[in-house]
Design brief:
Elements: E1 2-8, E2 14-20, E3 29-36, E4 39-42, E5 45-48, H1 50-60, E6 64-67
Length: 82
């Protein structure tokens, strides 16, 4: 059995934990839990709460962690419409 934690680390971030099959040929994957990841102030910006993420890793005890490679999305307008 493999426990997998997956992170979507944007500012509106979340994480989920999944459990994958007990045997190598067992491809059943079960969704176990999901949380929104909190942010903390960083000057005029916000950052993910690293302590919360560390505590989550201890609590969920995954065998594998997957983190999305976040990149800027220039096609989305900013607050000024640019």
């Amino acid at each position: 059995m493999t426990r997998i934690i997956a992170f979507d680390p944007g500012i509106n971030a979340s994480a989920a934990v999944l459990q994958h099959g007990a045997e190598m040929d067992d491809f059943e994957t079960k969704f176990l839990h999901m949380v929104d990841l909190p942010t903390v102030p960083d000057g005029e910006n916000r950052q993910l709460d690293v302590k919360f993420i560390g505590d989550l890793l201890v609590q969920w005890d995954p065998d594998v962690a997957i983190i999305e490679n976040v990149q800027a999305m220039p096609s989305i307008p900013d607050a000024a419409g640019n």
